[in-house]
Amino acid sequence: xxxxxxxxxxxxxxxxxxxxxxxxxxxxxxxxxxxxxxxxxxxxxxxxxxxxxxxxxxxxxxxxxxxxxxxxxxxxxxxxxxxxxxxxxxxxxxxxxxxx
Amino acid sequence: xxxxxxxxxxxxxxxxxxxxxxxxxxxxxxxxxxxxxxxxxxxxxxxxxxxxxxxxxxxxxxxxxxxxxxxxxxxxxxxxxxxxxxxxxxxxxxxxxxxxxxxxxxxxxxxxxxxxxxxxxxxxxxxxxxxxxxxxxxxxxxxxxxxxxxxxxxxxxxxxxxxxxxxx
Lengths: 100, 168
Description:
Chain A is mainly α. Chain A has 3 helices and no strands. Helix content of chain A is 77%, strand content 0%.
């Protein structure tokens, strides 16, 4: 039996790596993948809590998170393709049309 | 035994996540991400979430990452230059990542779960099965969010088509 805190720490490590990825990378697709990593870390924490509480509600919420992530990826990648078409780049530093 | 499996999987998951964040080639990044999702799927199995483990492999590692790979290939898998565009970006990112980890682990390990325990014991899981339990909850307590998620997926589908099409 693995203690609950081990899963919590693993979730925290994966979430922090994802946040670091968002801060480190300037490429829109890599930033997007780091966000997926953070969502995944939260899913792991949800499932471990559901297991510790002997309930499946946490797993149902993870199911919804995966649904929302699928919708988010479809829209986000369509946006990245649209930006690449007009700017010829996926670097977030080069997309500054709204900068004052 | 379970602890050994957990530590091997945790090490592989953290290693593949780090490799994804630091990879210079985007295609390698996507493949590391697939490895990370597979490790998390096996961790779900350790946590008695068999249905979610299957969904994780099929939807995340399968559909979503293939979509990522497709877009990376479509836009040209160019190598990312190793220059810093913002001064002090790397040390600051590492510092803030470390601070976030310390804050998260402090909160997650010092607070104990006080919620009411449900009746999904390992014996009940053995008897009924995880998929039946998750499906039962999904179509009774969470029926309205389930219907809403279908609307969300429809909006995403229409939105993706509108955004990606050159001329409507």
